[in-house]
Amino acid sequence: MGTTHSGNIGAAARAMKTMGINDLALVKPEGFPSAEATSRASGADDLLFNADICENIDDAIKQCKLVIGTTARKRHLDIPIIDAREAAELLCKESTANNVALVFGKERYGMTNEEVERCHYLVRLPTVENFSSLNLASAVQVLAYECRMANLTLNPKELPKGVEEDHVTSEKMESFFQHYFDVMEKALYLRKEGHDSLKTKIRLMYNRIRPKKHEIDILRGFLSKLEKKLK
To answer: Is the model's pTM score more than 0.85?
Structure first.
């Protein structure tokens, strides 16, 4: 997300490829492509060449049904925080049926609250309290290693128990949220300005639920009917 040092992109690509992860998306990277990124990739430059360059997080995760963000600091948001091992197991199991994403923020301050609101879980590494910040590529390497270990235990011929194929993509969820907020504004329950905290709570509530397609269809149908009544 908004990587400021192109060398970190190359190092992260190398970390990913060594663990069998080859799908890289970059959100508004600075100074990329660059010779430094290619050099630090050390043979993983195919990941750089094929990387999706996106304008925002919504573009990067739009086809994903599970999104896990990373954070080095405590967040005052009602979102589940899990460790790297649990995150890797969730990602690997879900990836057998759905597109998934593991999101890293900017080097200096990590993910913004707006980016965090797109996540179903956050993962924190158990670093020491007085020196908790990891280099971006190092953080990618740790999570990529855990994903590799989790993947080695999976049976590729069997869909793991508990994995739902009918969850909604991030793109469909974002469309639902915009519809939801529009109707709330028309009902005069929500103002266009000044209700950001309420929107955040609504997003996090539905992210915890992870509704299925037919459930979103029911809600969208209700919203459309209510919208007509309000007119």
So the answer is: yes
